[in-house]
Design goal:
The chain has about 450 residues and is mainly alpha-helical. Helices cover about 50% and strands about 10% of the residues. The protein contains 16 helices and 14 strands. Helix 4 packs parallel to helix 16 (about 445-460), helix 10 packs parallel to helix 12 (about 295-315) and helix 14 crosses helix 16. The protein starts with a helix and ends with a helix.
């Protein structure tokens, strides 16, 4: 029996034992009976019953537009590509998109208000679903829906390319997209997944319609965002990327930023999920970027560097990664907290822990990169080991026949000036008011697990 077969047999037997005597329930049955981990999680906590940060969502189709719900929806859509007969999953994703998108695709709303706030890069990420929905509509001959999804995707792409605030000329990183208006002149690794990775999907599908020159320039614009953040956040000695960077580190909203070189403008610690967003965006963009584009080799080298760095930090005991990548589980918050402007924040003693959403994303990146030929077989095996580590250490069997996933960092950010607790320190990432919420079945863990599970299936075929 292989490791994979052993894990499946063990968890499936435990799940069936826990659900013996349950009455008929189609959703539970699909969650239990499938040998696809992607489908089991999609039916367990993808189409319903997950958290977006601190807000519980009863169903995907009633989830308002945001990047967490969008991640879950786009991951479920990936599972649909491998399992086209699972029409309930596709219907749930359509429900998520329908709720937010006007009939003609020109407006995207959340709770009756515009969902795309000015220069908020997180608001763009859920548009990932439009591209898969467009493909499904075209395949079924539904040109009306296809036109709607294309229009909506174009609305998002154009808002980023033409309207989003950028770092001004004369500052380091000129041309980089601000993370949000309330974070002036800041770029975070998260933003690459939220904005440029969506921009790349549009370019790959429809960029040729605007002509070769525009398409080449747009791909260069996408690559520029990665080049800025790699150059500014990569620590040569640690061989890791810091979470955020400010072009104006002396500004009040950048209180968390280093004021001197090396890595001037960066926060103090390396947060795993931030590197997950970065690496995930890289592998997704490289999957789509024209082979002849002059920036492709640069981005491919970044991916190889990131994969090598991450494999060196992979925990040998579990195959997973710690929430703070510089350290193992012996390191913890110091119990004293952070002293900032006469106030104390982030007090506690939580130990560093293996975190599920980052581990899921890294597993996805390493397996997908290997499958695409961007990474070598060593990376593929590392990704498979990580996914099997999630099955062993983070997947739990629930009493209603579903599977769940534990140890997910709820959220993390940096500032702004009126939120000094979000300091980007070791204490913050373990005991912050948002980072200190270590949850089960939160959407960022659900979504990355499903993405990794789909890649694990693809490698098994």
């Amino acid at each position: 029996m292989t490791i994979r077969q052993g894990i499946i047999a063990t968890l499936t037997a435990a799940t069936l034992a826990a659900t013996s005597g349950c009455g008929p329930n189609e959703q539970k049955s699909k969650a239990v009976d499938s040998d696809s981990w992607a489908l089991r999680m999609a039916y367990s906590h993808g189409v319903a019953d997950f958290d977006c940060n601190t807000k519980h969502r009863d169903s995907l189709s009633s989830t308002p537009w945001d990047y967490v719900g969008g991640l879950v929806a786009s991951a479920v859509l990936e599972a649909c590509q491998e399992h086209p007969a699972e029409t309930e999953l596709l219907d749930a994703v359509k429900g998520f998109a329908d709720l937010a998108t006007s009939a003609d695709g020109t407006e995207i709303t959340k709770n009756g208000k515009p969902a795309l706030q000015p220069s908020n890069i997180d608001d763009l990420a859920a548009a990932r679903v439009y591209f898969g929905l467009y493909d499904h509509a075209m395949a079924s001959g539904d040109t009306v829906s296809a036109r709607r999804w294309k229009t909506a995707a174009t609305t998002v792409r154009n808002k980023l390319k033409y309207e989003h605030t950028r770092i001004a000329e004369g500052l380091p990183g000129a041309g980089g997209f601000w993370h949000k208006l309330r974070y002036p002149n800041q770029m975070w690794l998260d933003g690459l997944f939220m904005g440029p990775a969506v921009y790349a999907r549009w370019q790959a599908k429809w960029g040729h319609e605007l002509g070769e020159a525009d398409n080449t320039e747009s791909w260069a614009d996408i690559a520029h965002q990665f080049k800025i953040l790699f150059n500014k956040t990569y620590d040569e000695s640690e061989r890791l990327n810091y979470h955020g960077w400010s072009a104006t580190p002396d500004a009040e909203d950048s209180f968390w930023a280093k004021k001197e070189e090396p890595n001037k403008g960066c926060n103090a610690e390396v947060w795993a999920r931030a590197m997950g967003w970065y690496a995930g965006a890289l592998v997704d963009v490289l999957d789509l970027m024209p082979a002849t584009h002059p920036d492709r080799d640069t981005l491919a080298a970044m991916l190889r560097q990131s994969a090598s760095d991450l494999m060196d930090r992979q925990d040998s005991a579990t195959g997973l990664w710690f929430n703070l990548l510089k350290y193992d589980g012996k390191v913890g918050a110091d119990g004293k907290g952070d002293q900032i402007d006469g106030q104390t924040y982030n007090v506690g003693t939580r130990k560093n822990y293996t975190e599920s959403s980052a581990s899921g994303m890294f597993a996805y990146v390493l397996m997908k990169g290997g499958r695409l030929g961007l990474l070598d077989s060593k990376a593929t095996e590392s990704g498979k080991r990580a996914f099997e580590g999630l099955l062993r250490h983070k997947i739990v069997n629930e009493s209603d026949g579903k599977i769940g996933i534990k140890d997910i960092c709820a959220s993390a950010g940096l500032g702004p000036a009126n939120d000094k607790g979000r300091s980007g320190t070791l204490n913050y990432y373990l005991e912050g008011s948002d980072t200190g919420l270590v949850k089960s079945n939160e959407g960022k863990g659900i979504g990355t697990f499903i993405l990794a599970a789909v890649e694990y299936e693809r490698l098994g075929k």
